[in-house]
Design goal:
This protein has about 140 residues and is of the alpha/beta class. It contains six helices and four strands; from the N terminus they run H-H-E-H-E-H-E-H-E-H. The protein has a four-stranded parallel sheet with strand order 2-1-3-4. The longest helix has 21 residues, at about 30-50.
Length: about 140
């Protein structure tokens, strides 16, 4: 999983899955088949567990989201967007877009506490998030 960085030009809910970035990888039929099976399995799994998970987006941490990846594997949260630490300070517009562009509706915000910068940035982030009246869970609590 990577932090959100495609858009806001895409208006349709989307998911990016990469085989790799070279012609050799793109022509690997075994990898293509594995990715296709992964997509089908993901759709089937989401349809089965949709009512049992919290729909969330994440804030903080690096681009490749190690803490959110670990949480995603636990099947307690379905994570839509991740706003990485390098995109901070957080704005109301960023949070609103993450909420409004998530289907189904967001009911939780996951935060990578150590990946929110210094103490002032963490406090500012929490104050801003309180305006949205959503449950806030630290990644350390979501695993």
């Amino acid at each position: 999983m990577e932090s959100t960085h495609h858009g806001p030009y895409i208006e349709t809910p989307s998911l990016f899955i990469e085989i790799g970035s070279t012609l050799e990888e793109w022509h690997d039929n075994q990898a293509g088949e594995l990715i296709a099976k992964t997509i089908i399995e993901a759709i089937n799994t989401i349809n089965k567990i949709n009512n049992k998970v919290k729909i969330a987006f994440g804030i903080g941490g690096p681009h490749y989201c190690p803490n959110f990846n670990e949480i995603q594997l636990g099947n307690r949260f379905a994570i839509s967007h991740v706003i990485a630490e390098y995109a901070l300070p957080l704005t109301e517009k960023q949070v609103s877009e993450a909420i409004n562009k998530t289907i189904p509706k967001v009911n939780c915000i996951l935060i990578d506490w150590k990946g929110l910068g210094n103490a002032t940035q963490r406090n500012n982030t929490l104050e801003l998030l309180k305006k949205f009246n959503l449950e806030i869970v630290r990644t350390s609590e979501g695993k």
